[in-house]
Design brief:
By secondary structure, this protein is mostly helical. The protein has eight helices and two strands, in the order H-H-H-H-H-H-H-E-E-H. It has a two-stranded antiparallel ribbon with strand order 1-2. Helix 2 packs antiparallel against helix 6 and helix 5 runs antiparallel to helix 6. The chain is elongated.
Length: 229
């Protein structure tokens, strides 16, 4: 009992802490909603890169179709995505068409790279082709919501679709009596959650603007400071 109490009283192990960005002049042109959307997009791109790295580790034959090393393949896909360049193996397809092609059993190129690029291109398209947002930008909440559903569909296809030989298109989640690896599913879940939050926040922002206007109109006369002399 004494050992148990000592263990309960010990300080928790550190798991990192929240770190904010340094101030930049560009933030002057961002509203709160612009900033949230920018941070969410940055995190979504990072999630895609982590997902790609995990998929390359489980499917090393794929990155060898793109570059000499796994790290070089990741950098190549990231550069093409953020610079909005075409991904040659997808034969000019973009957005959801590219995603369908990357997940087709007949695709013979680097499936991990194509899948990641197509997912990222779909996300960027749903956000108006941008990764950073200012006061002059506006997001369509329905497009962002649709992107979240597309991630759900892509995750299901990745886990269930087979190639002509009856094998998974890509090795991802793994469950056995000895081991459980659901890190791919968790990363997909983070993507979906962020997209749903931005979609909900987008619709809420418009609604709250109207409510705020009404509150100011009604309560304004009662919130005037009173003279004290």
């Amino acid at each position: 009992m004494g050992l148990l109490l000592v263990g309960c009283a010990s300080a928790p192990a550190p798991h990192g802490k929240v770190a904010g960005d340094a101030f930049s002049m560009g933030e002057v042109l961002q509203s709160d909603s612009n900033r949230i959307a920018t941070l969410a997009m940055r995190e979504n791109i990072d999630s895609l890169m982590r997902l790609m790295d995990k998929l390359y580790q489980r499917n090393p034959a794929e990155w060898r179709k793109t570059a000499a090393t796994r790290e070089a393949a990741i950098a190549h896909v990231r550069s093409a995505l953020l610079e909005r360049q075409m991904w040659p193996p997808l034969e000019g397809q973009r957005d959801v068409q590219a995603l369908s092609k990357a997940l087709s059993p007949e695709f013979t190129g680097d499936r991990v790279g194509a899948f990641t690029y197509a997912m990222g291109d779909m996300l960027l398209t749903s956000h108006g082709g941008k990764t950073s947002f200012t006061l002059v930008d506006s997001l369509d909440p329905q497009n962002v919501y649709n992107a979240a559903r597309n991630v759900e569909i892509a995750s299901w296809v990745l886990n269930h679709r087979k190639n002509a030989q009856g094998q998974p298109l890509l090795l991802s989640n793994h469950m056995s009596e000895q081991e459980r690896n659901l890190s791919f599913e968790r990363e997909m879940g983070k993507l979906i959650a962020r997209l749903d939050l931005i979609a909900s926040f987008g619709t809420e922002r418009v609604r709250r603007s109207a409510i705020g206007f009404g509150q100011n109109l009604v309560a304004g006369p009662f919130l005037q400071f009173l003279p004290v002399r």
